[in-house]
Structure formats: structure tokens, C-alpha cells
Write a structure and sequence with these properties.
GO terms for molecular function: RNA binding. This protein has 770 residues and is mainly α. Helix content is 51%, strand content 5%. Strands 5-6-9-10 form a four-stranded mixed β-sheet. Strands 1-2 form a two-stranded antiparallel sheet. Strands 3-4 form a two-stranded antiparallel ribbon.
């Protein structure tokens, strides 16, 4: 063991949290619930990486670095350089866990759930020898150093401290980092090593770039804490050196900071500025490595990302399958989009040999397809063929991402969903709150119940109960769970009562980084309709009103921007007799979309129930889309006489390809005025005459007319997604007849004649009422 001067050594604390592989839920609620295996070759959760919510690794205990004393003597390196301390007790613990220990063997038993969130994303660095030029490799160190040689170096530091040259200081760091790993904690407790660190800070301006890089490598090997203030000095110096270094050196420095677990936004900002001028010089390996660094740092200047996208296209034929996964993960983590063209190119690459694509890379590619909403049909088809076999050997985080990608892309593959549902119950304990939430949301969104639905849902609901402390930390996840369950017609009353309690509502609004008012309102409204016997907490009237206004403003703005909706609204008013017979509003505001309501009496005649409608309302303000035609007196006379109307509309439609009506506050044309009535009323009378006498004997009917779009259905099918299916279910419970103006029927009709559109609407309205 390296001898240390006990008079100068400090109270010893462990500097470096030991690295480990975690295989259970990272959100443990007590130390006794933590299940982890310490492994010096695996990952440590670090400040600057994902929070525990997004990482499978358990967070290491916080380490406090402070000045140390022994025998009344204080060792102070500098005002900005706290001394390095290592606990002898912790150091001894570091060497007690052997590969054959029970905890280590347990990792082997649970290897499916083993995921190294630090090392696994770096696997691509082994694919090409060029990566070694600009990345850190733990196996490449200086020549191994014996304990006696280490003692000699520390002795020289103490004796010759005033005469050590910068290059000698850098060389000492390199050599000391080559001591056996079990000696590192003891080395870091040495007063002589603390003095060497002080000398490096004192001489910081005398080091050249290679020396600085060598010292930073030593810091990584020795496990200097990422929060140590000494590193601030080195980061500042590297910022000054950016424009003097090569691309390989800059990437290596960025990689070392990443490996150290320290965020360096100042350095990266300058580095990215450098790259904006030199991006065309990036080689393939440099490009892939840079994208990895950008993703891990979560920093992404968009102008640079666009340039990198063009380089991806340049190298597209040389990129390997695993590198495709690295590119996707880097862009995904930095919230940077890729064009549909590039995504399709990378999807084609993956399709060419998907059998040999690792599951890790497959998940990362799916993340990017989800982020960009690109529907690569061939990729998803091949994914559906290989995923069921891979899911049992995939960790629950990977399973969650696969499932979430399917729901985001609206792709319902029963084979994939059944494999997920079958594999999850036995290992549900490994799920984080986020995993439970996203999986329930995905199944609910796709409106799919697997064959083992009862086992699947009961296991997840039970896990929600077990993870309530975690859901208190991430309240938005509980709301996501409950909404996903509601889509699937599961209503765990105790959990709903808790989620709508004033305390949790307040907690969700304060802690969540998302706006959760809409989610709370949707849950509350759903419970009010589908759980008539529910007597638990409900949302306050104030929050209900706030959510109602928010959702109505969004829905009205959305629908009034769609020409196909405005055409349907205008023709319905024309057919039924005016705006008082049709009401555009949200029948079920909590379902987040609006409807056109029509009411018929017992004789199947429309009722003028919309008392809010007046000729000056926005809903009645429509005009012909401008196509370069001047409104002359002659043309106005023709319109008033009902002539040339069909010709004018046909010309407008053929020119624009869409219906020509839109809401506008200027040039309003009252629907009841003679300008629009003459021809319209004649056609309406013709249509009204088509209603059979038997219709008049039917009871009073309330119709909810819905103009749908493709995003409300599973991809390539006519199966409604969960939210929209739930809305129709609730409308039926309230006594409404849902009339669907489907996009596959209505959109092609926009180019047909006015009479054809009216005939279609008449059939929909009056036939649905039967």
C-alpha cells in the first residue's frame, strides 16, 4: 500500500462513487430496497447525465469534498481548490466485492435488465480504429506503475515542489493514474497528491494542449469528482485553447469531460463555434463521435445540426448499422430533428440487414422515428417481424421505448403488443414510474387489449400502488397512467381519488415540468361520465373553467383553420336552414375536440336550438376564397339571381384544390340574407323532400357530427385511437348519435359538385338519426 503521512492526511472520504451496473428500478425508497452490483468496470450515475428518472443506474450517494485536517494541521491547496480526501473505510469497502459474490451473481441472473447507461452508448467507438484518435479508452494507459514507484513520485513532489516543470507535472499525473485501481482511493487521500494538484493549478498557464489533455486523462482514470472546483480552472483553460487545437484534440477533450461526468457548456459553446467554420473538415468517425457528444451534452445549436445533417448524407453509404443508431440517439437526446429524406435513408440502411442490427441500435432508431413522425412502412414491417422474438431478452426500458414508438406512429402490430404484454408481468418490478406510464399510455392510445389483458393490467396497476412515493416525485406519470387506463376502460378508484385530491393537484402543478391542467380535466370529465357511482375527489370548478377555456380556444382555432371543416359547416347550415340549426362547440370539452351538434324533433325535422347564432357571428362569416375575380355589379346580380354559381364554385375548386370558404371577420355574408339564400334554399328544399315519411315518427335525436382526420386512427386502418374511441363511447352514454364525416369520404367530395356534397350530408344526418 502507498504510505501516507498521517499528520498531513485528512479525514478520509471516498472521492469517487464506485461504478456499477444496475438492474432494478432506480427509484428506490430506502437503502434496503436498493438492488445493485458494484463493478469497477461499469457505470456511475453522474451529475451532468440523465437524472435518475431517465437513467437505469441508481444515483450514487452524494460526496462532499471539503478541506481536511489531522493532528491540528490544515491542508489547504488554494481558495478554489478543496483538498482531495478518501475514506479508508470506503476504500476498504471498494475491494470487498468480488465477481463471485452473491450480489455480483445476482446481476448475472438478471442480465436481461442490466443496462449501462454510460458505457453502452459508447460501443460504437470500437467499430473503427479511427475512433481511437479522438476518444478516451480506459484500456490505453501509461505503463503500469508499481506501488514503490508511486511512493517515489509522491516523495519527489514533496521535495522538489518548487522546481517541477509543467511537463514533469503532467508526466507524474500520467504515471500515477497507472497505479492499480485498488490503490487509487489511497492515492487520492495523500497530501503529496493534493500538493501535485495544487501545482497543476498554479502552473495552468504554462501547460500546452497535449499536457492539459494528459492531465485530464489522469483525472478520468483516477476518478476525480466531476464537481471538484479544480476542474473549473481546467475547463477555463481549455476554453482558451479551443482555437489552437485540432479536431481530434477537441473531440478527445469533449469525450474526456463526458467520461468524467462533468457538464462543460462554456467549452462546448466555443467548440461549436469552431465547428461552424470547420464542419466540412469532419471525417466520418469525427462526425459520428461529435453527434454522440452533442447528444450526451444535450446541447445542440440548430445551425450546426443542419450542417451535420448534410454530412450524414455525404457519408450515408459508409455508415454502419450501429452508427445509424448512434446518430439517431444523438439527434434524439439533443431534441434536434432530421429531415424525412434522411430518416428514410437511414431506415433503408436498417432494413437492408435488420437481423444483424443490435436491439440497442434498433431502439434508438425507433426513438428518432417517433421524434420525427416519419412513417417508414418497410422498416416498421420488418420491425414487427423481429421484435416479438427480441422483446423477452430486452430490458423494460427498451420495451417501453418500442411500445411508445408504436403508439406515437399509430402503428398497431398485434404481434409486438402481445409480446410486450406477455413479457411484462413477471418483471414489472423492474419498471420505473415512467415505464409503467408510457406502456399503459401506449396500449390505451392504440386502443388494444392483449389476450392476457387481466393479468397485464392488474400487474401494472399493482405496481402503481407500490411506486406511489415515486409518482409523488413525478406526478405527471401518474396522470399518464390513469389516462391510459381510462382509454382502455379501467378505472382504479383509489388511484383516481388520490390523483384528483387537492393535495396531489397542487403537487402536480408545482412539481411537474409540464402543464397538467388538461390531463387533470380529461381524467375528471371521464370519471364524471363513466363512473356514476364514484364519490371521491373531483377537480375544482376554477380549474375546470380554466381547462375548458384553454381547450376550447385550441379546438376552435384548429377547426376554423381547416377548409374541409368550414365547407361542411357552411353546407350543413345551408341544408338545415341556417346557423341556428347547427352548433359548433365541444359537447365533451375534456375530450379535447369539438363537434357539430344537430338536434331533430320527433318528425325528424331540425330544431333551431342554437340561440347563440346570429347573422353577425363568426360562424356565419364566410366568403369565397380569392382567386383573382373582381366582384362587379354584374357578377353580384348574377349571384343574387342564382346564376353562374356552380360555374364560379367549380372554377375556384379546380384552381385551389380545396373548398373555397373560410371564416373571416371582414366582408361577412349573413347566412339568412338573400345573397346566399336563393339558390341554396332551393337545393335545401330538394334535399328535405328526400326524407321518407317514416322518419317523422322517430323520437327526438341529438347528433354529434365529427369531421375526422387520419391522425385519429391507427395507421393504415379505420380503427380509432384510444382518446377518440373513448369520446364516442361517452357520447353514446350521454344519448348522442355520432355521425362521422370520415376523411376518406369527405375530402374526395370537396372536388365534386355542390349537390353531391349536400346529398352526402343529408344521407349522413337523416340516416344516422334512424
Amino acid at each position: 500500500m502507498i504510505s501516507t503521512d498521517t499528520r498531513m492526511a485528512a479525514t478520509l472520504k471516498l472521492l469517487k462513487p464506485l461504478r456499477y451496473r444496475a438492474f432494478c428500478n432506480p427509484f428506490t425508497y430506502s437503502a434496503t430496497q436498493s438492488v445493485a452490483c458494484w463493478n469497477m468496470r461499469s457505470c456511475t450515475w453522474r451529475k451532468g447525465q440523465d437524472s435518475p428518472e431517465n437513467s437505469l443506474c441508481h444515483p450514487a450517494k452524494k460526496v462532499n469534498i471539503c478541506s481536511t485536517s489531522a493532528s491540528g494541521r490544515i491542508l489547504t491547496i488554494s481558495s478554489t481548490l478543496p483538498s482531495l480526501e478518501v475514506s479508508r473505510a470506503s476504500a476498504s469497502k471498494a475491494s470487498t466485492l468480488k465477481p463471485g459474490s452473491p450480489r455480483a451473481m445476482r446481476v448475472d441472473e438478471e442480465d436481461v435488465e442490466t443496462f449501462d447507461s454510460f458505457e453502452d452508448p459508447r460501443v460504437f467507438l470500437q467499430l473503427r480504429p479511427e475512433y481511437q484518435l479522438h476518444s478516451y479508452n480506459r484500456s490505453e494507459t501509461c505503463q503500469p506503475l508499481s506501488v514503490s514507484e508511486g511512493e517515489l513520485i509522491l516523495h519527489k513532489v514533496t521535495v522538489y515542489q518548487d522546481n517541477l516543470q509543467p511537463q514533469i507535472i503532467a508526466d507524474y499525473f500520467c504515471k500515477l493514474s497507472s497505479l492499480p485501481a485498488e490503490q487509487h482511493p489511497v492515492l487520492l487521500s495523500s497530501a503529496s497528491f493534493a500538493l501535485l494538484c495544487q501545482l497543476s493549478v498554479k502552473n495552468i498557464n504554462l501547460f500546452d494542449a497535449p499536457d492539459l489533455i494528459s492531465i485530464l486523462k489522469a483525472f478520468v482514470s483516477l476518478g476525480i469528482p466531476h464537481s471538484h472546483s479544480m476542474l473549473d480552472v481546467f475547463e477555463t483553460k481549455f476554453c482558451h485553447k479551443v482555437w489552437e487545437m485540432s479536431l481530434d484534440q477537441l473531440l478527445l477533450v469533449a469525450d474526456l469531460w463526458r467520461y468524467l461526468g462533468r457538464r462543460v457548456p462554456r467549452f462546448l459553446k466555443i467548440f461549436f463555434s469552431y465547428l461552424n467554420l470547420h464542419w466540412k473538415e469532419l471525417s466520418l468517425s469525427q462526425l459520428i463521435h461529435l453527434i454522440y457528444i452533442i447528444g450526451e451534452s444535450r446541447q445542440a445549436p440548430q445551425d450546426l445540426m443542419k450542417k451535420l445533417e448534410s454530412l450524414i448524407l455525404k457519408y450515408i453509404d459508409l455508415i454502419s448499422l450501429e452508427e445509424v443508431g448512434t446518430i439517431c440517439l444523438g439527434f434524439f437526446k439533443s431534441s434536434s430533428s432530421l429531415s424525412e429524406f434522411v430518416m428514410r435513408k437511414m431506415g433503408d440502411l436498417a432494413c437492408a440487414d435488420m437481423q444483424h442490427l443490435s436491439s440497442y441500435a434498433l431502439v434508438n432508431i425507433l426513438k428518432m422515428f417517433r421524434f420525427t413522425h416519419v412513417d417508414h412502412v418497410n422498416f416498421m414491417k420488418q420491425f414487427g417481424q423481429i421484435a416479438p422474438q427480441r422483446i423477452p431478452s430486452l430490458g423494460v426500458q427498451g420495451v417501453m421505448h418500442l411500445t411508445l414508438a408504436c403508439s406515437a406512429l399509430r402503428i398497431l402490430d398485434e404481434g409486438v403488443m402481445n409480446a410486450v404484454a406477455a413479457s411484462l408481468p413477471p418483471r414489472v418490478a423492474y419498471c420505473r414510474s415512467k415505464d409503467v406510464a408510457k406502456i399503459l399510455w401506449s396500449f390505451g392510445t392504440l386502443n388494444y387489449k392483449p389476450p392476457n389483458a387481466e393479468e397485464f393490467y392488474s400487474s401494472l396497476i399493482n405496481e402503481i400502488h407500490r411506486k406511489m412515493p415515486e409518482f409523488n416525485r413525478y406526478p405527471e406519470h401518474l396522470l399518464t397512467c390513469l389516462l391510459g387506463l381510462a382509454f382502455s376502460e379501467y378505472f382504479p378508484v383509489e388511484l383516481i381519488d388520490f390523483a384528483l385530491s387537492p393535495g396531489f393537484v397542487r403537487l402536480a402543478q408545482e412539481r411537474s415540468k409540464f402543464e397538467v391542467t388538461k390531463e387533470l380535466y380529461t381524467l375528471d370529465g371521464t370519471v364524471g361520465i363513466e363512473c356514476p357511482d364514484y364519490r371521491g375527489n373531483r377537480l375544482s370548478s376554477h380549474l375546470q373553467q380554466k381547462a375548458l377555456e384553454m381547450l376550447w380556444n385550441l379546438a376552435r382555432k384548429d377547426m376554423n383553420s381547416k377548409p374541409e371543416f368550414l365547407e361542411a359547416l357552411f353546407l350543413l347550415e345551408t341544408m338545415l336552414g341556417g346557423p341556428q340549426y347547427v352548433k359548433h362547440h365541444m359537447i365533451l370539452p375534456h375530450t379535447r375536440s369539438s363537434d357539430l351538434e344537430v338536434q331533430l324533433d320527433v318528425n325528424m325535422k331540425p330544431l333551431p336550438f342554437n340561440r347563440e347564432a346570429t347573422p353577425t357571428e363568426d360562424v356565419a362569416k364566410l366568403r369565397l376564397k380569392h382567386v383573382g375575380i373582381s366582384l362587379t355589379d354584374d357578377l353580384m346580380n348574377q349571384l343574387l339571381k342564382g346564376k353562374s354559381r356552380g360555374h364560379l364554385q367549380g372554377e375556384t375548386e379546380s384552381d385551389s384544390g380545396q373548398q373555397p370558404m373560410k371564416l373571416e371577420e371582414k366582408a361577412a355574408i349573413p347566412m339568412g340574407s338573400s345573397l346566399c339564400n336563393t339558390a341554396d334554399r332551393l337545393e335545401a328544399m330538394e334535399m328535405a323532400g328526400l326524407c321518407p315519411p317514416a322518419c317523422r315518427q322517430a323520437p327526438q335525436v341529438k347528433l354529434a357530427i365529427q369531421l375526422t382526420n387520419k391522425n385519429q386512427y391507427c395507421y393504415g386502418s379505420r380503427d380509432l385511437l384510444g382518446l377518440h374511441n373513448m369520446k364516442r363511447r361517452q357520447l353514446n352514454q350521454l344519448g348522442y348519435h355520432v355521425v362521422e364525416l370520415s376523411h376518406w369520404e369527405w375530402l374526395p367530395l370537396l372536388k365534386r359538385t355542390r349537390l353531391e356534397k349536400l346529398a352526402f350530408l343529408h344521407e349522413k344526418v337523416f340516416t344516422s338519426a334512424l
